[in-house]
TrEMBL record, chain B:
GO molecular function: NADH dehydrogenase (ubiquinone) activity; NADH dehydrogenase activity; ubiquinone binding
Protein name: NADH-quinone oxidoreductase chain M
Enzyme class per UniProt: oxidoreductase
Protein's cellular compartments: Endomembrane system; Membrane
A GO CC annotation given for this chain: membrane
TrEMBL record, chain D:
Organism phylogeny: Bacteria, Pseudomonadati, Gemmatimonadota, Gemmatimonadia, Gemmatimonadales
Record's GO cellular component terms: NADH dehydrogenase complex; plasma membrane
Membrane-spanning intervals of the chain: 6-25, 60-83, 103-126
Record keyword RNA-binding present: no
Protein family (similarity comment): Belongs to the complex I subunit 3 family.
Membrane topology: Multi-pass membrane protein
GO molecular function: NADH dehydrogenase (quinone) (non-electrogenic) activity; NADH dehydrogenase (ubiquinone) activity; quinone binding
Function: NDH-1 shuttles electrons from NADH, via FMN and iron-sulfur (Fe-S) centers, to quinones in the respiratory chain. The immediate electron acceptor for the enzyme in this species is believed to be ubiquinone. Couples the redox reaction to proton translocation (for every two electrons transferred, four hydrogen ions are translocated across the cytoplasmic membrane), and thus conserves the redox energy in a proton gradient.
Name of this protein: NADH-quinone oxidoreductase subunit A
UniProtKB/TrEMBL annotation, chain E:
Record's protein name: NADH-quinone oxidoreductase subunit H
An example Gene Ontology biological process: aerobic respiration
Matching InterPro entries: NADH_UbQ_OxRdtase_su1/FPO, NADH_UbQ_OxRdtase_su1_CS
Ranges that cross the membrane: 6-23, 67-87, 107-128, 149-169, 181-201, 238-256, 276-295, 307-331, 343-363
Enzyme class: translocase
Role according to the record: NDH-1 shuttles electrons from NADH, via FMN and iron-sulfur (Fe-S) centers, to quinones in the respiratory chain. The immediate electron acceptor for the enzyme in this species is believed to be ubiquinone. Couples the redox reaction to proton translocation (for every two electrons transferred, four hydrogen ions are translocated across the cytoplasmic membrane), and thus conserves the redox energy in a proton gradient. This subunit may bind ubiquinone.
Organism per entry: Gemmatimonas aurantiaca (strain DSM 14586 / JCM 11422 / NBRC 100505 / T-27)
Amino acid sequence: MPDAMSAGAILRALLPEMLLSGGAMLLLLASVWTPQGNQPGAAEGAERTSVLARFGVILCLVVGLAVVIAWGDGAAGTPDGRVAGDGFRWAVDLVILLGTALALMLLEAEHQRSAAFGPEVPSLMLLASTGMMVLAGARDLMFVFLGVELMSLAVYVLAGVNRRSARSAEAAVKYFLLGAISSGFLLYGMALLFGATGSTRLQDITEWAAAQATLSPLFMSGVALLLVGLAFKVAAAPFHLWTPDVYDGAPLPVTAFMSATVKTAAFAVFARIMIEGLAVAAPRWHMGLWWLAAVTMVVGNVFALSQRNLVRMLAYSSIAHAGYLLVSIIVGDAAGTSALIFYVVSYTLATMGAFGVLITINGGRDRAPTLDDIAGLWLVRPWLAIAMTVFLLAFMGMPVLGGMGFFAKWYILQAALQAPAPQTILAVVLVIASAVSAAYYLAVVSAMFMRPRPEGQPVPSTTPLNQSLIATAAVALLVFGLYPTPIMELARRATTTTSPTSNPAAPRGEVRLQTASVPR
Amino acid sequence: MLLSLGIDRWVLPAMLLWPVLAAVLVRIGGRDVSRDDAGNEAPSGGPDARVLTLAALAVEALLAVAVWGVFDVDGRGWQARVDIPWLADLGATLSLGVDGLSLPMVVLTAFVVPLALLGSWNNVRVRTPAFGALLLLLTSGLVGVFITLDLLAFYLAWELMLIPTYLLVGVWGAAGTSRASLRYVLFTLVGSLLMLVAIIALWNAGGGTSLHIDHLLQVALSPRAQLWMFLAFFAAFAVKSALVPFHTWLPDAQSAAPTVAAVTLGLKVGAYAILRFAIPLFPAAAMDYTVRSTILVLSVIAVVYGALVAMAQRDFKRVISYSSVSHLGLIMLGSFVLTPQSVQGAVMSIVSSGIATTALFLLAGMLEDRRATTAFSAFGGLAKVLPWFSVALIVSMLSTVALPGTIGFVGEFLVLIGTYAEFPVLAVIATSGVIFAAVYGLRAVQQLLFEKVDTEANGALPDLSGRERFVMVTLVAAMVYLGVAPHAILQRADRASQALIESVRFGPNAPTTLPPVSLSR
Amino acid sequence: MITEALIVSAILFAIGVVGVLTRRNAIILFMCAELMLNAVNLSFVAFSRLHGVTGHVFVIMVMTVAAAEAALGLAIVIAIYRHFGTVDLSNLRTLRG
Amino acid sequence: MLRTFLPVLLLLGFVVLNAVLILGISHMTIKAQPTPVKSIPYESGITPLGDARERFSVKFYLVAMLFIVFDIETVFMIPWGVYYRQLSCAVPMVNGVCPAGQLSFFGLGEMLVFVAILVVGFVYVWKKGALTWD
Amino acid sequence: MVKILVVFGVWMLTVAMLTLVERKLAAWFQDRRGPNRAGPGGILQPVADGIKNFMKEETNPPFADRWLFIIAPALAFIPAMLTWAVIPLAAPLPTPWGLIDMAVAPVPVGFLFVLAISSLGVYGMVLAGWSSNNKYALLGGLRSSAQMVSYEIAMGMSTIPVLLLAGNVSLNTIVQQQAGMGWNVFSLTIAWFTFLVAAFAETNRLPFDLPEAESELVAGYHTEYSGMKFSMFFIAEYSNMITVSALTATMFFGGWDLPFTQWDNVAPFTVLKTLVTLIAFALKTGFFIFVFMWVRWTLPRFRYDQLMSLGWSIMLPVALAYIVIIAVASLGLDALGVTRGPLFTLALLGLNVVLIAILLTWLDRGKLISPASARVAPTDLERLRARGLDLSRRKLAAQGVLPDAANTAAGVISEGGN
């Protein structure tokens, strides 16, 4: 009784995800025929991880092509509206695939040094990004949960994938436990929303809420729990406590993946739920999210100040970035959403590049690089130091030399100030926080440029692939930092082209006006 | 002739982009002298990076001359204006142009930087390709600040100065200066990021269609919005130009920085930006009684305080820094008094301060090259040993303390006259600052040049080399020439300052209670 | 009936949360997380009596996820035990800021 | 709902009661006369060395994990199996029979995808040696 | 309810008698007489056993989990006693209060209920093994849990084809479906076989009684138990055996249905119909109980690794593939316009014959049917020897005797081992 849902429509709507997961499974099968451990030919087996990682990159490109084609065709989501087919999904898909491809390159680079990864790690990464892509298109709480878990489960494993490392195991267990708990909150929120509204489709929820004179406590507690769960996932303060430890312990490529791509996906779904699904209730959650953003920005930046461990520093910095991104969700209109997309592109590039440099200077050791490791980098590898500076400045939001990072902040600020209810105070908090962030980013710069190279510190060497990754990321940041229009055009198209199944009940922007009359 | 070549179409973009291009060339193609010296490595091919840098800067100076050449003294509005499409979605264009206010700044910058490099040729001897590249980037930023008419482009140029300066000070400065340079960046950044918020808000208020200053000047704002935006802009500019009480980073950074960086730090970019953006964009806020009087009082305090503190310094470089702080007070005074004389005086003061500070820092750098210190206690009686040096120092110092006949006098005189007409009390107090300036200037001269040669090493110091002489003679000549013939600048700044005052008085945001300014002089 | 089920579910969830907050043993934390998920399942089933089959479908999915999570959690806890000889999280100290 | 399961509940109570009774009665009827030798765990007459609850083969954990995962697959298959005929029909069935020419491959396709994924996992586990007990 | 009491009483009696039957059968197989002292022909032997167990002293080993030790037998006992409640025993009985389903609890999800409750039994065994603080017991408990969970998957999967044909999880409907189409054992032969094998394993009966393999583990998880506690495990085992037999009969042999006639399936139902079908059901079940005992006294025990590998690498894939095949085939038959009836079953039977042939020739290759020793060609013998040599070399290497010591097997977490 496959009513109204022809298999063809589903296939069309989910083609990229299917391609990616299918490819990932092929890679998994390929990996299993790789000799390892005490089997004969294990030495070549280690090579295999690199090969598979490269295939993974190619797969990402292919799927990216599929996404582009789907977008160009104006492919719709599923007819029942549970999977979106709008530009937002496709754009986020592209960012996710970009991040995955770069993370796979990082993986390859790290593997060349430490040989820490089994051949199934690339496919794990691809499976995680399948989950993320599901998240990007999810318009139903069920799909949200499915995507979150698909992503998280793979990433839990990735965090602990270096079996020789106790640090990796500790990171995995912490990430896993916190992740499971946050899933619990998320799920309870979903259950209460389902109980209150009778549906898990965002569209139905919106329509239900729009029809209510007052929102029931059940609904509101569902929203609150959902918010908590999502805040855990995006590592917003005060639900961020797992982040530094997990980022610190996980292998560097995985950390890059977590801090850029996982965050992208989490924010995509956060935005979709809050803006598309719960916009009607905006007056009720608005204040909570406001404080969440403000506290996250402050906490992330302040705690980052005292870190000497570069990965922990970047972990706190990623918390701060989560705060910036939250601002765009609070704004909630099309401008905010496109700012979000632009931001994650820039953030992905900068993060992957920065971790590429960290992998290079770490040389495959099983510990996180510190300021001492990077000190005097300029004296031995000047271009590497310059690239790292670009990435750090991009994090910081410095114009020209920080490239896209500046426009990322610009667009968020613009959205915040242009919104129907301008978020001036948040904007000011954001810039002050950015100024504070300069202190620790520049501490790294100053370590690289102004401190002598410690005795006995080896000269880092890179693989060609990693080198090209770093160079590409830096150049892309710089070029799009002077001419951000293409990316912004993309982001803008993403938020203006909506599929036929998009929610007619809640056009963005007008939502606020409707809800203004909702009595508190 | 120049116009017939269409030079005004490309000269400004060239000034902006050439240094960036040259920076890449220098970094890649330049040769690091120190490596040759150390003999560690076979000398890599290519010319000395310093030579390359200097050549690139010379080209920049030539371009500046061209701009000067195409500038129509009687013209109105922007000259040599170019609009390059850029970010259509924001309404940002790469709009470049100069007027009487910015022209002197552009030329000043384009000349001072190469002279400073030449004058401190041996100040930096390690990793010169990177040094040259950063200097060129910095130059691009400096020039960009003066010639961009679009606020986004301006902001980019403004921030572009930051990181090169940070690295120049931190890497090539005295040991342990990374903290000072970090402080500089952080101070500046807080201000400029607030300005960023204000820029976006302003753009937004203007309909979000254009970031061009001409457009934004026409945007009507509520007094409250104006006030906040003005404060944000002012914060950025005041920190950058080191107005008391935001000046604390300046002496530390300048005294630690390599000479060229100290010179660029001494350029009054912030003061220019206040004249160009903060005042005309938000006139009601700038002319608001409370705001204006606060700033005026601060300016006067800066004049006196800077001079007094300069008197108490034991290091030559710090004296220069504080004199620069003191000058800034005068410039601010002139800017906010906002009479035609005072504005012109402010422009003159920016130029004079730029030249004099450059000269003094170069001289300090020369001392430092010879003795590795600039503390007064290490010197004395140099007049006999270093005659060329002494002459240059005396002239520069006299210009700094505004002796008639030097450029310094023109600027201060105009500012004080303008102020006197409006705020006699402030003018009188500010004048006392000039007297203190004489004290610290003479004291510095005396301690360096005229006491006994009490240190063995000072007896055998070599006088200025030919290269150093060339630089100092150029600078001294400029001081004296502009001192006796300030017309070259005043004539060009006249219209621009008139236009500024008009826009303040008659723009959409004109203050309701007009400041008592007489337009007809 | 539904109300009672919801109350039970909320209590179970709360027990899970409290356990998570107070205990430091990885296995117990893990069990608490599973308890939270299953408490939610109870809610879903209860709500399904009001709203139809969607809740049941959700429950099956949650069960699947919980199973995968359980398998994974067990593996990770074993890995922890192999590295540290304990499953007490407060003894895990390789990662300190 | 409750009525259908009432017998089960009754039976459950009855069975539990039975179990308690059996345990209780046997507890009352016997008299324990423990001696130290009687009390030691029986290990074929050899004095036990150490605690029994030592670490045991990780294989058991592995089987547990595999069970959890594969058992859930069965959970998905049961509803599919029950509704297979309905899923194989593009229109609602008439008297339990699909109208001619309306067969749909939807149900089969879905399950093939599902089984394919399952097989990939199975092959992975197999090749990894998790299924061999050595 | 009366039904519960009656059926429970009968059930307990059956279980008790089964212990006797088993011993008698064993004696018969082994050409001896079996118990013959208590009562005529030993008929009162179960009673004697019961009294003995009640009187027997219980040992309390110095264990840490006293309560678990006591609860464990009950945990094994309770689910075993619950499972059978849903099995339809006969055609509905007409009474003054209307038709009464001949099952203790005719729940609509009977099949799921059986699966769910029967899998709870494993707790009793694991906890018994754990709480005994006895190495044999622990190992037995672990083995039983691993074995039961392994075969539970195969069991679950092997019943999916039944659901495919029946379209319902209610056991009554399954019986009805077989009444219409013919017994499932014909249409789903392979499913039946896998189900049967899995059932043996689930009940811990020979040839899969590794958890209590007396030659290795004394008595497995109940080594430390005596008296009634031991007896409860025993009752549970026999009860499970009956349940599984009844389930086999229900799912594959038409349950209480009489073959070749629709007389018993259509209204009006009479007491006679009920009685006849009850007898039919009892016969079918009894036959399977007999098969269980027959197998026990005929086949040798599996090795543990063989057991696990059989479950995971043969049963599971076969069951999975069979699901797909049946799904395809039934869809194909539907497409061909074959109505659900005897013809449908015949077609599937034909398919099954082919499949069995394939299975035996291709998949088996001498592994299952005949003993390996009878088929080993000289070259294979050579290969086997080489493999054994290789294994022992590797073992030596693992102990560090040989220099080329390789690591432990990567990919799966390998630790300890026993």
